[in-house]
Amino acid sequence: MTIVEVLLLVVAGFFAGVVGFVTGLASLVSYPALLAVGLSPVAANVTNTVAMVGVGVGALSNSAREVVDTGPRVWRWTAYAALGGLTGAGVLLVAPAGSFEATVPFLVAFASLALLLQPKIRELAGGRDLPRVFAAALFVVAVYGGYFGAGAGVIFLALTLICTSESIWRASILKSYLLGVANLVAAIGFVFFGPVHWVAAAAMAVGAFAGGWCGPPLVKRIPPNLLRVAVAVAGFGLAGWLALAGASALPA
Question: What's the whole-model pTM score?
Answer without folding.
Answer: 0.78
